[in-house]
Amino acid sequence: MGAVITKDKALNTRLQLAHMRLGFGVGMDDVYLVLRNLPSLKLRFEAHDRSAREVAAWLAQRSEIGKVLHPAFPDCPGHEVWKRDFSGAGGLFSVLFDEGYTEQQTDRFVDSLNLFKIGFSWGGAHSLCLPYRIEQMRDRWQSRGILVRFNIGLEEPADLIADIEQALVEMKKAA
Fold first, then answer.
1. How is 73-96 classified by DSSP, letter by letter?
2. For FRET with 127, which of 94, 135, 155, 164 sits at 20 to 30 Å CA-CA?
3. Share of the chain above pLDDT 70, in %
């Protein structure tokens, strides 16, 4: 549900061919769902944003977390660009666990969460998280520690924080 716009005729032709060959298309059910949800988009986005900032701020105080990567936080890379171009951040952010925690421990953390599901469908009503092996995905990744990405849904932030807290306890048992 987006658009690619270009003045470059050769690029436009390549994009049209890729679209045709890959079978990209939007089904009627997809269009219906988008149209049905547009009237409440602003309210949902603002709720995601408020809750994500609360959860991210709580995580930033935890010793298990080396860094919170949230665009609204001044110490996040790219914050100045975010501040210039955006007024909200939505529910998506990442954390880097302290480098003393292993992949096995952070996987146990993710597996121990009850309110968060594992997945990629960022922006939905339900909270999700996913561990990333970022050093395998990027050649010049400089940060240390395991990265976990969160999408904060529409659940109560206090409930999400309690779930994260119990998962942090479980994570330490994997040591």
1. STTSTTHHHHHHH-S--TTEEEEE
2. 135
3. 93
- The predicted structure's pLDDT at residue 3: 81
**Can you read off the two tokens belonging to residue 142?**
């400089």
> For 15, what's the count of Cα atoms within 13 Å in the CB-facing half-sphere?
10
Q: Which is nearest to 152 in space by CA: 139, 140, 161, 142?
A: 161
Q: Which structural domains are found in the chain, ordered by start?
A: 40-173 (3.90.1150.10)
pLDDT confidence band for 25 (50 / 70 / 90): confident
pTM of the model: 0.82
Q: Tell me how far apart the alpha carbons of residues 53 and 70 are, in angstroms, rounded to a whole number.
A: 8
Interior CA angle at 64 toward 61 and 65, to 5°? 60
CA dist 112 and 126 (Å) reads 16
> Interior CA angle at 127 toward 33 and 26, to 5°?
25
